[in-house]
Design goal:
mainly alpha; Arc Repressor Mutant, subunit A; globular
């Protein structure tokens, strides 16, 4: 049975950026995510940790 995960619009934006970067480059690096979204790298790190905690991405610092 699928579980429901609550996401903010911002976290959805991160997932979308990751999706597009992985399709294009086969990998989504934090610097590339930051560039795509126009945010600072520490913001990306926080979002990736949150998404990893929800089981939505594999994050390796």
């Amino acid at each position: 049975m699928a579980r429901s995960v609550s996401l903010t619009a911002s976290l959805e934006d991160y997932l979308e950026a990751i999706f597009h970067l992985e399709n294009k480059d086969k990998v989504a690096r934090s610097k590339d995510i930051a560039g795509a979204l126009g945010v600072a790298r520490p913001s990306v790190t926080g979002a990736l940790r949150t998404l990893a905690g929800k089981g939505l991405v594999n994050y390796e610092p």
